[in-house]
Amino acid sequence: MNKFTILISCTDQVGLVTNITRVLASQQLNIVGMREFVDEANKAFFTRIACVGDFEQTEKLEANLAEILPKEAEINLIAEQEKQIAVLVTKEYHCLSEILIRNHFKTLGANVQCVIGNYEELRDFTEKLGIPYFYVAHQGKDKLEFEAEIKAIINQFEVDFLVLAKFMRILSADFVKDFAGKTINIHHSFLPAFIGANPYKQAFERGVKIIGATAHFVTDNLDEGPIITQHTTHVDHNFGVKDMVKAGKEIEKKVLLEALELIFENRVFVTGNKTIVFK
């Protein structure tokens, strides 16, 4: 029995669910999970369908679905298989460590193909867990040269997604375009309130009571791409700067891993600068 996921987005109209399920039933496909959402403001329909069946003719199924859907419909048939990822890092280890530990114990939902860093600090930890680590220095290079070296490494592997696990370099528009819709970033949710160095020190001095983190797809607009997931945690006057940093790292790990799980399970649609997430 083959397991796969069908993702459909199109203009909303009467009878879509009925017509879609009729096509699947005609090909002896069993629906084990189905979620749908209608964006009434934009008259847009989204659905995620998990199917099981003895089925090989994906082109025929896609053609049959296209016949009963609006012309501009986007249809994606995704076989159940683990995604392949590359992770980009700088010096902070908390997000990388969570990814690599889960990868080691086969609970990530994806396979880490490589880790690329612009410092050497995380090489030893990465290689102890059997993952190749590539060092690409940024010093003394322009952005084009630096990113070309990173792309050359990524292209050695079959990669579905890039994960920026506290990769503290701003990517160019050309780099983002090459991996459009495939690059996920994590950052604290102080932005734009506390920009630049030592955001937690700034937050401490301001008396902030909530720390948050945001996972999002990367676009040309720095830290403003479609948001996948966000969480917050409360702090109070007992928290010093170090306590706030620790709390921030914990929430960043939680948010990033939740976002990756949603993506690896094909639960995220991007529509404009927003996402539809079927949890």
Helical segment count: 8
Question: Which stretches of 5+ consecutive residues score pLDDT under 50?
Answer: none
Q: Compute the gyration radius: what is it?
A: 21 Å
For the record, the count of structural domains works out to 2
CATH fold label of the largest domain: Rossmann fold
Strand fraction: 25-35%
Q: Tell me, what's the shape?
A: globular
CATH architecture of the largest domain: 3-Layer(aba) Sandwich
* Assembly classification: single chain
Cross-sheet strand order for the largest sheet = 7-6-5-8-9-10-11
Helix content: 25-40%
| CATH-level-4 superfamily name of the largest domain | Formyl transferase, N-terminal domain
Describe this structure in words.
The protein is an alpha/beta fold. It has two domains: about 1-80, ACT domain (Alpha-Beta Plaits); about 85-275, Rossmann fold. The protein contains eight helices and 13 strands. The chain has helices at about 15-25, 60-70, 95-105, 125-130, 145-155, 175-180, 200-205, 240-265; strands at about 1-10, 30-40, 45-55, 75-80, 85-90, 110-115, 135, 160-165, 185-190, 210-215, 225-235, 270, 275. Strands 7-6-5-8-9-10-11 form a seven-stranded mixed β-sheet, sandwiched between helices. Strands 2-3-1-4 form a four-stranded antiparallel β-sheet, with helices on one face. A two-stranded antiparallel ribbon has the order 12-13. Strand 8, helix 6 (about 175-180) and strand 9 form a beta-alpha-beta unit. Helix 1 (about 15-25) runs antiparallel to helix 2, helix 3 packs across helix 8 and helix 7 crosses helix 8. The longest helix has 24 residues, at about 240-265. The two termini are about 25 Å apart. The model has no long low-confidence stretch (mean pLDDT about 95).
